[in-house]
Every structure is written in structure tokens, then in C-alpha cells.
């Protein structure tokens, strides 16, 4: 639970250090406090975070869509649902990206705790 609490706050899931992001969509290579590698070094590691982001965007879209549909039935605003859905499916993945990266890192740390090689070069300068 602590790992995910730190991740939700966009901090390092391992130590709680920040900042992890140089820009909104640009994560640093290592935690500036504990020096843990943030990419964890496996081929295809980024795909897990991307998939987590896409699934979250689809779930948010579905919840909003169904909520509006249920609350306005029998005359739902189909045009607003169409265009609003289009905006949501473009905006949510961009806005949710940093959170998806840190939550996926926390999820990875639950199943693969950090090893000494994750800290080899120490903290970022």
C-alpha cells in the first residue's frame, strides 16, 4: 500500500523521493534520492506502462459514458457523448501518463523488489 501511495503522489515508490519527472511526459533515468533505476532495464518495460495508461483511459471513458447515458435516459445527448468521448480518449492518456508510469513502477516493485544492480550508479546529480 505504501508503494502505491507514493506512486499516486508522483514520488519514487521505493523511497518516496521526488521529483521523478523532468517534464510532464519525461521521466528521469533514476530517482534523485535513492538512485534506483526507474526503467528497471527490461526490454519492453515501457509497454506495461503504456498499456496501463490505455486501460485506465478506457475505464474512465466507460464510466463517464455510462454515467451520462444512465442519467439522461431516454434522450441521451448522442452528439455530446460522441465529441466528448473523442476529447476524453485523446486527453486522458496524456494527462494520466505520469501517474500511469509511477503506478506501474510500484506494481513492478511489488513483484520484483529492487536488486543491488538497480542502484549501481547512485542518485542523479
What does this structure look like?
A two-stranded antiparallel sheet has the order 1-2. It is 55% helix and 4% strand. β1 (21-23) and β2 (26-27) form a beta hairpin. It has three helices and two strands. The protein is mostly helical.
Key terms for this structure?
two-stranded antiparallel ribbon, single chain, 2 strands, elongated, mainly alpha, 125 residues
Topology, element by element:
Blueprint: H1 2-8, E1 21-23, E2 26-27, H2 45-72, H3 78-111
Helix pairs in contact: 1-3, 2-3
Brief overview, please?
With 125 residues, the protein is mainly alpha-helical. Helices cover 55% and strands 4% of the residues.
Q: Mind telling me the C-alpha Rg?
A: 18 Å
Instruction: Please tell me what the overall shape is.
Output: elongated
Class from helix and strand fractions: mainly alpha
Sheet with the most strands, sense and barrel status: 2 strands, antiparallel
The largest beta-sheet arranges its strands as 1-2
Helix content bin: 55-70%
Number of DSSP helical runs? 3
Order of helices and strands: HEEHH
> How many runs of DSSP E, i.e. beta strands?
2
Oligomer designation: single chain
Straight-line N-to-C gap: 29 Å
Mean pLDDT: 88
In percent terms, what proportion of residues is strand? under 5%
Low-pLDDT runs: none
Amino acid at each position: 500500500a505504501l508503494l502505491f501511495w507514493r506512486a499516486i503522489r508522483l514520488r519514487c515508490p521505493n523511497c518516496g523521493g521526488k521529483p521523478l519527472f523532468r517534464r510532464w511526459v519525461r521521466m528521469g533515468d533514476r530517482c534523485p534520492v535513492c538512485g534506483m533505476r526507474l526503467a528497471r532495464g527490461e526490454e519492453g518495460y515501457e509497454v506495461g506502462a503504456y498499456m496501463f495508461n490505455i486501460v485506465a483511459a478506457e475505464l474512465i471513458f466507460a464510466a463517464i459514458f455510462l454515467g451520462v447515458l444512465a442519467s439522461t435516459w431516454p434522450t441521451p445527448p448522442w452528439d455530446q457523448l460522441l465529441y466528448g468521448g473523442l476529447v476524453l480518449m485523446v486527453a486522458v492518456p496524456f494527462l494520466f501518463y505520469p501517474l500511469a508510469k509511477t503506478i506501474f513502477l510500484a506494481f513492478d516493485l511489488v513483484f520484483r523488489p529492487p536488486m543491488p544492480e538497480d542502484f549501481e550508479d547512485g542518485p542523479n546529480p
